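Quick start: what a row looks like.
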Amino acid sequence: MKTDVPQILLLGAVCVTCFFVGLIFCTGAGEYWLKLFDSFAGTIGLVLVALLETIAVMYVYGHKK
């Protein structure tokens, strides 16, 4: 299944999104956000985000690599 989105554009979007999510932890309230994410790590939301990131990386690099 091939889409019209170039792989480099998808990779750039994933990298920028992950950068801004990680930037949250570098602010003054980073410890609060870390505790919040840590306490809700078992919920479906973060598991779904991790699954989508894995699928995006597999799409960009291919499942055989």
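That is the whole record. Residues 7 and 60 are 6 Å apart (CA to CA). The chain has three helices and no strands.
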